[in-house]
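Recap for those who missed Tuesday's class. We walked through two folding examples back to back. For each one, the amino acid string is listed first and its predicted structure tokens come directly after. Nothing is annotated here on purpose, so try labeling regions yourself before you check the end of the notes.
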Amino acid sequence: MKWVDRGATNSNPVLGVMPRISVIVGIDSTGSIYLSLTQSNSNSKVMQIFFQQLVLKLDAERSNWREDTVILYDNAPYHCSATTMTTLE
């Protein structure tokens, strides 16, 4: 809802484009934080790149992290996409 002149439309025909920053955050049980800042909408490709880089970082820090690590995330479509699932496998 907005204030408009009588008879004027309440629609907004032009989509304003603003700089957008998306944050992807991973936190482990010891308090380490892994994050990514992007200037794009999150999608399957962004998640794939995040997980690939996260794996490289975790491999460098502790080679056996796969034995005791659980990845939790919400049910966003790009989190459950075939591309993301293949990357996680």
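Example two. Treat it independently of the first, because the proteins are unrelated.
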Amino acid sequence: MESADLLIVGGGPAGLSAATGFRDAGGAGSVLLVGNEAVHPYARPPLSKDFLRGDSSEDSLPLQPSARFAEQAVAVRLSQRVEGLDPGTRT
């Protein structure tokens, strides 16, 4: 079990937006983003259009460099699912 001051369930664009918005607004404390995909948040429309047609590279898909998560002190757990929450113990 892992605990965090802010838990974000979902590693897509909305999850990324929640994490960066929290930090940009001065949010302090530990932030944990959990996503069931094996990669950091990426641009989905270009994946289904440009990338699959061969018009763009895989490097163009991430919404931000993975190193930026560490810079923002956002822990990321990829290829994982949240099985349960216990607000009382913050786990």
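Answers for example two:
The CA atoms of residues 4 and 67 lie 20 Å apart.
The beta strands are 6-9, 31-34, 74-77.
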